[in-house]
Automatic annotation (TrEMBL), chain A:
The lineage of its organism: Bacteria, Pseudomonadati, Pseudomonadota, Alphaproteobacteria, Sphingomonadales. InterPro entries: ARHD_Rieske_2Fe_2S (IPR015881), Rieske_2Fe-2S (IPR017941), Rieske_2Fe-2S_sf (IPR036922), Ring_hydroxy_dOase_asu_C_dom (IPR015879), Rng_hydr_dOase-A (IPR001663). Its cofactor is Fe cation. Keywords: 2Fe-2S, Dioxygenase, Iron, Iron-sulfur, Metal-binding, NAD, Oxidoreductase. This is Phenylpropionate dioxygenase-like ring-hydroxylating dioxygenase large terminal subunit. Residues 44-154 form the Rieske domain. It comes from Sphingobium fontiphilum. One of its GO terms (molecular function) is dioxygenase activity. It comes from the Bacteria. PANTHER family: CHOLINE MONOOXYGENASE, CHLOROPLASTIC (PTHR43756). The keyword tRNA processing does not apply. PROSITE patterns: RIESKE, RING_HYDROXYL_ALPHA. The keyword Hydrolase does not apply. Pfam families: Rieske, Ring_hydroxyl_A.
UniProtKB/TrEMBL annotation, chain B:
This is Uncharacterized protein. It comes from Sphingobium fontiphilum.
C-alpha cells in the first residue's frame, strides 16, 4: 500500500461536521419511543437466514424485543417463505410455542383454531358460534418479508416506503454474489445488558478503541504497526448503510499452548488461511466488493446495515452482530458466528468452543464498556458526546438516525 | 458427586474433575471460570494445555456421538480449558475486565448438540 493514510476516510471527507451529539439521544424514553415508530417500524429489519427454513413446513419463531413482536417465519408448501405475527385470530394467543420445527398446520393451544403453514385459517371448532368471522380474511397477520443474499428482512409498516433493494441502496449490488451460503453453520450468542443500543452500534463502527479496550484480545491479532488506531480504510456508503475495510496483523503468531493447539486443528473464524488465499479459494477474499484496495493484510470488511446490524466477512466464515433496543437503557445483543460446517470431530468441537469463547469475550468487552458509558451518560454531567474525524461512521449514523426520526431516510427528499 | 474413573493415562486430570466434570454447557464453563481463583485456572492450564494432543489422540478412537462414560467425562473436563485458557493465556485474570459479575451468556449451536 503506497500511502495508507490516503485511504483513511475522515469525517470531513464525507462532509460530516456533526462532531457533538446530544447524550439525550441515548438516555431519553421519548427518543426510544420515536425510534420504535420512526426507525424500527419503517426500516427493513434483518431477522435470520432463509436456510434456517430450508424445507416446506420448516418454521422458526423470533422475538423482536424492540417492537415486542413475536414472529413466525415459515416456508409454505409452495416453497415461499412468509412471516406472520404469532397471534391467534380468536383471542390473541401466541400459538406457536416451539422455537423451530416442521409442521403443515399450527393449532392454537387455547381453543384449537387451526392455521395452515401459509398463515391462512383452516378450522374453527364449533364454527357455528362464529358466524361473524370470515375465515378467508382471518389468517395470521402477515408481515412484509423479502430476502437478499439469503438474509431474511421484515418490514413492519402497513406499506413499506421502499422496497428492500431500494432500502439497501447499492450495498446489495456491491456484495452481489458474496458467498454467505458457503458458511451455513452457526453458533448464536445472546446477551442483554443495561445500555442504549446505539452504544454498541457505535462500538462496531470505529476501530479507534480496538488497541485500547481490546488490548489483550484483538489487538495482537488485528492492529497492524502501520495503523495503530485501526482507522477504517476506504469507507463506502450506501444511503444509511456503509462498509469499511479493516486490516489485520499478519505477523500475529500465537505462542500460548492451548491457542496454538487450536490453530493447528481448525483456524478460528477470523484467522487468515494463507494457503487458501494463495490458491484463490478463501471465500470472501475473492469477492470484488470486498477489499477493493487489495491491501495485502486484509482483515475484514465491516458492513453496517442500518439501523442495527454489523456483518464482518472473515477468512473462514463471517460474524453477524445485531443490536436490539429493549428500552432507552437496556438492549439485547445477538451475535452469530458462521462457519463452513458443524464440528465433525471432537478436535473441531474443542476448537470451535475455544473460538466461541474468544469471540464472546471480545463482545463482552464491548458490552461492558457500553454499560459503563451508559452509567456516565445517565449521571447527567455531560449534555454531549464527541465524535472525532476518525469516527466518520458514528457521525454518519447520527445524521441518518436524525433523518429517520424526522420521517425521512428511506429515499425521501 | 460420584464420577466414573477417567480413562487410564489421564489420571493426572483427576484433581480437576470435581470442578469441570459436571458442566455441560459453554455458559456453565464460562461462569465457573469467573468464580475460580486465577491460581486454580493456572494449575489446570499447566496440567492440560501441553498434553492436549495426547488427550485427543486417545479420543480420536471413539465415535464422537457415542463416547463411553469415561471418555465423555474426559472430554467435559478438557472443554473446561476453552474457558480457563482465556483467563490464563489472554486476560491474566478470571473475568473479562469491567464485565458484570456473575455474567451469563446464552450460546446455542444451531443444529448440533455440543458435549
Ligand atoms: S385464542 Fe387461539 S383458539 Fe382461542
Ligand atoms: Fe470492540
Amino acid at each position: 500500500m503506497a500511502n495508507l493514510s490516503e485511504h483513511m476516510t475522515k469525517a470531513r471527507d464525507m462532509g460530516l461536521d456533526n462532531g457533538r451529539v446530544p447524550v439525550e439521544y441515548y438516555t431519553s424514553a421519548d427518543y426510544f419511543r420515536r425510534e420504535q415508530d420512526m426507525i424500527f417500524r419503517r426500516a427493513w429489519l434483518m431477522v435470520g437466514r432463509v436456510d434456517e427454513v430450508p424445507e416446506p413446513g420448516d418454521y422458526i419463531v423470533r422475538d423482536l424485543p424492540t417492537l415486542k413482536a413475536s414472529v413466525v417465519i415459515a416456508r409454505g408448501k409452495d416453497g415461499k417463505v412468509r412471516a406472520f405475527h404469532n397471534a391467534c385470530s380468536h383471542r390473541g394467543v401466541a400459538l406457536v410455542c416451539q422455537e423451530r420445527g416442521n409442521a403443515m398446520t399450527f393449532r392454537c393451544p387455547y381453543h384449537a383454531w387451526v392455521y395452515r403453514i401459509d398463515g391462512s385459517l383452516s378450522a374453527i371448532p364449533a364454527e357455528q358460534d362464529f358466524p361473524h368471522v370470515d375465515k378467508a380474511t382471518s389468517g395470521l397477520a402477515p408481515i412484509h418479508l423479502d430476502s437478499w443474499a439469503g438474509f431474511i428482512f421484515l418490514n413492519f409498516a402497513q406499506e413499506p416506503e421502499a422496497t428492500l433493494p431500494q432500502f439497501l441502496a447499492g450495498l446489495d449490488q456491491m456484495l452481489e454474489g458474496a458467498p454467505f451460503e458457503q458458511f451455513p453453520f452457526c453458533i448464536r450468542v445472546t446477551d442483554e445488558i443495561d445500555c442504549n443500543w446505539k452504544n454498541l452500534v457505535n462500538a462496531f463502527n470505529e476501530g479507534y478503541h480496538v488497541a485500547i479496550l481490546h488490548s489483550k484480545t484483538l489487538r495482537p491479532a488485528v492492529v497492524p504497526k502501520e495503523n495503530p488506531h485501526l482507522h477504517y480504510l476506504d469507507v463506502k456508503h450506501f444511503g444509511p448503510h456503509s462498509a469499511g475495510t479493516v486490516q489485520r496483523n499478519f505477523d500475529y503468531n500465537p505462542q500460548a499452548p492451548a491457542l496454538t493447539w487450536v490453530y493447528a486443528q481448525m483456524l478460528p473464524t477470523s484467522a487468515p488461511d494463507i494457503a487458501a488465499i494463495e490458491e484463490g479459494r478463501a471465500g470472501f477474499y475473492e469477492h470484488p466488493g470486498i477489499n477493493r484496495l487489495k491491501i495485502p493484510n486484509f482483515g475484514t470488511e465491516t458492513i453496517t446495515i442500518f439501523p442495527n446490524i454489523s456483518i464482518q466477512p472473515l477468512a473462514n466464515g463471517y460474524l453477524f452482530y445485531q443490536f436490539w433496543p429493549i428500552n432507552e437503557g437496556r438492549m439485547r445483543t445477538e451475535v452469530r458466528i458462521y462457519s463452513r460446517h458443524a464440528p465433525r470431530t471432537l478436535r473441531e468441537e474443542y476448537a470451535m468452543a475455544s473460538t466461541l469463547a474468544a469471540t464472546r469475550d471480545v463482545v463482552v468487552e464491548d458490552m461492558a464498556m457500553s454499560r459503563l458509558q451508559q452509567i456516565g451518560f445517565e449521571s447527567g454531567g455531560k449534555t454531549h458526546q464527541q465524535f472525532g474525524q476518525n469516527e466518520p461512521l458514528l457521525r454518519m449514523f447520527t445524521r441518518d438516525y436524525e433523518a429517520y426520526l424526522q420521517g425521512k431516510g428511506m429515499g425521501q427528499p | 458427586m460420584n464420577h466414573p474413573a477417567l480413562p487410564e493415562n489421564f489420571a493426572f486430570l483427576a484433581p480437576f474433575v470435581a470442578t469441570w466434570g459436571d458442566l455441560h454447557t459453554q455458559d456453565e464453563r464460562y461462569r465457573r471460570r469467573q468464580e475460580l481463583p486465577q491460581g486454580e485456572l493456572e494449575a489446570f492450564h499447566a496440567a492440560l494445555a501441553p498434553r492436549l494432543e495426547e488427550v485427543f489422540t486417545h479420543l480420536d478412537q471413539f465415535d464422537p456421538q457415542a463416547l463411553p462414560e469415561a471418555e465423555a467425562l474426559l472430554f467435559r473436563v478438557v472443554l473446561g480449558l476453552t474457558e480457563a485458557s482465556q483467563a490464563v493465556e489472554i486476560f491474566g485474570q478470571p473475568r473479562v475486565p469491567y464485565a458484570p459479575f456473575p455474567h451469563s451468556v446464552a450460546m446455542e449451536w444451531v443444529g448440533y448438540q455440543p458435549h
